[in-house]
Design goal:
With 683 residues, this protein is an alpha+beta fold. It contains 13 helices and 36 strands.
């Protein structure tokens, strides 16, 4: 055991000479006074001088000690075990600072224990030994390009290290890069790879086991900072809106999905009771929820979309637990006065009454095109798609669009892959003898027909149809398909199927007045409007920005000055942004990776656009594992600290600052006493 310092900046001790220099240079200038006799004064001065000389030396000593204590405290001294090493050892540390490290486990947060272990490992190094460190959150990053003897800098980095609300983009790549720095050391130097983590099974097990297999002879030590194998945790997994893009004033349903993880098997109750709070603009709603242990549940809220504004902010929150970071979910839902609709046909005439109806639906902005463009739309109405068009339709469905397909009136090869996920050809049928097919509403309880009475729907169903797909069409429809209307002989007329995040509607009826009387019915337009509106997808888009990994972006539209836009978080703090050029124009990009929360692109004092960043849900598992391939090389945090001898380490800088304060107080008392004596002499 001996005295050590972490910051060997010994020149700071020169501050102890400052009081001596002041005492040597400073000259007292006594005040001149006129008196009749100085005999008595001389006697008093002799007496005062005898008393003052010892006190002057004592003040010099106290002031020197104050400066010395403060200067020595900056060296961060401690009392601990002797450092060992010959300068030929290299320590490579992998410190897990992902979101799961912020969980409260036992009496301490996991990240705090990880920092203690890392500090203890560094303190065991000799001053000439080398070290490097890599963190895992977001995109893993090394502190140095190669191992350096920068122990003080690494200690300062550890002092401010915290877990980040992010997952890792490449755990194995980070571990492999760290191992290669050890493997590339010269033969006369030794190295150790130290992995400090909670070893969450979901993200760490496969990469660590793969590394241990690839480097079986490397000195690899794993220190787990997880005290419990599993931490009980409640998570808000998703917040969705149905429909995802509401119209102003439209009634919508917000669904909050919850999940409980790692429940105790010996718990007296099979459920966890908690409150779920939903904030939607100025509205605050709350509902209780009984969440099964190790199970899932959902809570729904009935809402009305705002009458104005182009974006609607929603926030779902539950009660805090041992890991509160994943108890909140954000959603920015677009609110549009009109929804975009693309009508795909060689020319307008071929779409007949369908196009006229689409252009007269109040909430639609319809554009007729001969081919599908790249830009997205809420609705796509496609006349007679070919087999080659199926991939494009599936892509739009996966993106959340509602696609209405009018089959080829001669031979259709697109409906079978879309409806049945199988290759097949349906042949069209046509009546030429003057008779017609009649239709009927097959699902009167569906929301599509909620606004209409039976008599109105009957008048529409009685309209004659002269052409359709027949034969095998509609037989063996998969689970999830809904036949909204059918012919009286059982052949489906309108079929709806959810696909991906979108909805597919097959309109097995012609759209020209020559072959269909539906276009003459006054009920055609409102039924079509309700069919499109109520068939929209319920699922919200996936998070576009991954917390801790991606940066917020804004494509600056033509005519908008990028300099007028700035990015702020929910607290109003401005974020640093960079202006970049892309193939489509200018892009504003945040300099730092996004953290969970809501961010606003401001133009002056008005909100130009909003963005929600959510917690990475994969970090919520909080179930650890023990690396099986590292038998004998796995330690708990307590074992690692004991091995490093950190238990015997005593930090001395707090005591030094306390002594400096004590010496300063004694100096003040002596100076006050001298001042009182001077007053007595003058009186």
């Amino acid at each position: 055991m001996m005295l050590h310092v972490e910051n060997p900046v010994w020149w700071l001790m020169g501050a102890a000479l400052v009081p001596l220099l002041v005492h040597l240079v400073a000259k007292a200038r006594p005040q001149r006074r006129k008196i009749s006799s100085i005999a008595l004064l001389q006697e008093l001065l002799k007496l005062q001088t005898k008393r003052a000389k010892p006190k002057d030396w004592l003040l010099l000593l106290l002031r020197t000690l104050v400066c010395a204590c403060v200067a020595f405290a900056f060296l961060l001294p401690y009392w601990g075990s002797d450092q060992v090493g010959d300068g030929k050892h290299t320590l490579m540390m992998v410190v897990d600072d992902t979101a799961s490290m912020g969980a409260a486990d036992g009496q301490q947060v996991r990240m705090n224990r990880a920092v203690q272990v890392a500090r203890a490992a560094l303190q065991e190094l000799a001053p000439s030994d080398r070290a490097n460190m890599i963190t895992l959150s977001g995109y893993p990053a090394f502190l140095f390009d190669k191992p350096e003897s920068g122990k003080p800098l690494m200690l300062r980095e550890l002092a401010k290290m915290q877990s980040k609300p992010a997952a890792s983009a490449g755990v194995y790549d980070a571990l492999l890069a760290a191992a290669r720095q050890i493997a590339d050391l010269p033969e006369d130097k030794s190295g150790e790879l130290l992995i400090i983590s909670d070893f969450q099974a979901h993200t760490m097990q496969e990469p660590v086991e793969k590394l241990l297999r690839e480097y079986p002879n490397m000195n690899i030590r794993c220190v787990t900072v997880a005290q419990a194998e599993a931490v009980e945790n409640t998570t808000v997994e998703s917040l969705t809106l149905s429909p995802a893009k509401p119209l102003p004033g439209q009634e919508v349903t917000a669904t909050v999905k919850l999940r409980h993880r790692n429940g105790s098997t010996g718990a007296p109750s099979g459920h966890v009771v908690l409150n779920v709070t939903l904030a939607a603009g100025d509205l605050r709603l709350s509902q209780p929820c009984e969440l099964p242990r190790d199970g899932q549940a959902e809570v729904q809220f009935a809402l009305t979309a705002p009458q104005s504004g182009k974006e609607w902010l929603l926030e779902a929150r539950t009660e805090a637990d041992a890991f509160p970071e994943d108890n909140t979910r954000y959603l920015v839902a677009p609110v549009a006065a009109k929804l975009e609709c693309l009508a795909i046909a060689p020319d307008r005439a071929q779409l007949g009454f369908m196009l006229r109806a689409l252009e007269n639906i109040p909430f639609l902005s319809t554009l007729q095109l001969p081919a599908l463009p790249e830009n997205a739309a809420d609705y796509v109405v496609w006349l007679a798609p070919m087999q080659d068009d199926v991939p494009a339709i599936r892509e739009r469905l996966a993106a959340g669009a509602c696609v209405l397909v009018v089959p080829d009136s001669v031979k259709d090869q697109a409906c079978a892959p879309l409806l049945m996920d199988a290759e097949a050809t349906y042949t069209a049928e046509r009546l030429t003898d003057g008779s017609s097919w009649k239709t009927e509403i097959a699902a009167p309880q569906d929301a599509v027909f909620g606004l209409f009475d039976a008599a109105s729907l009957r008048s529409l169903a009685d309209a004659g149809i002269y052409a359709r797909l027949g034969g095998e069409f509609g037989k063996g429809l998969p689970v999830g398909c809904t036949v909204l209307a059918r012919y009286t002989d059982g052949v489906p007329a309108v079929v709806r199927r959810p696909v991906g995040r979108g909805s597919l509607i097959v309109w097995n009826m012609p759209v020209t007045e020559r072959d269909s009387r539906w276009g003459y019915s006054p009920m055609c337009l409102p039924v079509l409007a309700e069919m499109l509106l109520k068939s929209r997808t319920d699922a919200a888009a996936e998070d576009a920005v991954v917390a801790g990994r991606d940066c917020l972006l804004l494509n600056v539209p033509a005519g908008v000055d990028a300099a007028s836009l700035r990015l702020v978080n929910a607290a109003g703090e401005e974020q640093v942004t960079l202006l970049q050029n892309s193939g489509s124009g200018q892009v504003l990009r945040a300099e730092a990776a996004a953290t969970p929360g809501v961010f606003y692109w401001m133009q002056g004092e008005a909100v130009y656009a909003s963005a929600a960043v959510n917690f990475p849900i994969e970090e919520s598992a909080l179930r650890s594992y023990t690396p099986a391939s590292a038998t004998g090389r796995v330690q708990t945090a307590a074992q690692a600290l004991d091995t490093a001898g950190s238990a015997a380490r005593v930090e001395l800088w707090p005591w030094l600052l306390g002594l400096a304060c004590l010496f300063f107080v004694v100096e003040l008392l002596i100076c006050r006493e001298r001042k009182n004596e001077r007053r007595q002499i003058e009186s």
